[in-house]
Amino acid sequence: MSNKTGGPVKVAFQGANGAFSEEAARKLLDCEIETLACRSFEETFSGVSSGAADCVVAPIENSLAGSVHKSYDLLQEHDLQIIGELNLRIVHNLIAAKGVELSDVRRVYSHPVALAQCERFLASLSRVEALPAYDTAGSVKMVLETARPDEAAIAGAEAAKVYGGVILAEGIEDNAQNYTRFLLLTRTARIAAIKVRPTSGPRKTSIVFRVANRPGALFKSLAAFALRDIDLSKIESRPIEGRPWEYSFYLDLIGDSNDPRVERSLSHLEELAESVRVLGCYTADDNCS
Amino acid sequence: MSNKTGGPVKVAFQGANGAFSEEAARKLLDCEIETLACRSFEETFSGVSSGAADCVVAPIENSLAGSVHKSYDLLQEHDLQIIGELNLRIVHNLIAAKGVELSDVRRVYSHPVALAQCERFLASLSRVEALPAYDTAGSVKMVLETARPDEAAIAGAEAAKVYGGVILAEGIEDNAQNYTRFLLLTRTARIAAIKVRPTSGPRKTSIVFRVANRPGALFKSLAAFALRDIDLSKIESRPIEGRPWEYSFYLDLIGDSNDPRVERSLSHLEELAESVRVLGCYTADDNCS
Prior knowledge:
In chain A, 28% of the residues lie in helices and 34% in strands. By secondary structure, chain A is α/β, with parallel strands linked by helices. In chain A, helix 8 runs antiparallel to helix 9.
């Protein structure tokens, strides 16, 4: 592994260079890093599982758009541990090639979530079509490569820097309470080797569990935490493949998995659930929370 | 309104003609209908709120991909009532213009969820690029309009009929346990005028509520149902705009909202929650459940 020999830590992220995930990687890690741009979320997790990368930075939820389904599913499919969390303020910008004026723009490319978050701004421009792309920074790359005089893309400021674009309008998101929560994950064997930048929040533990499909099953599961006054910060349900209308539940709870109270709540949950898995224990990011 | 004068019931749906939502509309309603194809989910709900349409058919969750966030958000933004439910088996097909052979195809268009559900099939074709589009039937329409000899689209069989395409491969989804649950919604004043096709399931009530952000709040809310042995079939959390990491909870419970036991559970929930709203009471669809 690269950092065994003192080299940079290899961090996989989804998207093109200049993506918000890459910015999150730089803020999450407290050491020299090398970022690996991947086309899909699967590639980022597989890269870490196979050892091609040391860790992965994955968006798990946005304060406006909600949970990132794909990331939740990959938490369960791969045997990685969450070791850090970051809440990144998302600032969108309209980016184009040098010489393009705001009034020239007729087509704007970006990830569908970014386009939706800039709806009011886009509606304020006349005769502009919003077109979906795989990711924000990737759409900047494409727009600058083709350099058509009437095209622009929406992405973070870093993407303009990376591809030499000009910011035509900054902070164009409709709602400023726009944060994406990113998770940092690695293989259990690598935890000690990855230096996470300290954050100021409490310890947090993330788990996933399944319960039998019977009345009161979820309620009883939550009792394991409520009866011990353990605070839950997030619950998410995801479908179980091949079992229509049955779900896995993901929970984030405030507390360290080694705290006896948390340990007892997890043992209690194991009595009640079909399966329980701890996805990681890490220091929460208090920014904006 | 059209059906006051004996005309067809106007049903709004998202997507192009031939979409799965249009098929769901025909199966959900037990009367003559006129379907209104809308580009966005917002348009479908707004159309019913404004009176331009009588009702809307909206996908709420898929058994593999999970919840449709946009539909959940629109349930809360509009004052409509859920009056019916349908579980539609989703069968994907590769559709192209006449004369195109499977081996000619180099680019396949569809909605990203449909592309993801046919990943194994697409990987089995050589040198094929998967490209995202706004919807399934709309991508068939586009591919048949441009009629390039190396392009195809993924959609339901109905889209091939509507646009005169040829099915190159049918049932190409990776997993046959592929169902989308659709909801039928209308304005309160129109409920009596809309004839819903009978289904065989039990009565179901859908609600949305918010609780104060304190330990045990969700647990106590679920107690309102668990203490009365009321079964929950779905829980979904969605972010509250402008309040990062706070959530609205959507619940589907088995029982009629006029059943005294359900009425008492909802009164109990009102004591515990900041807000509670009943989104509708309808007969569940037992197909595949």
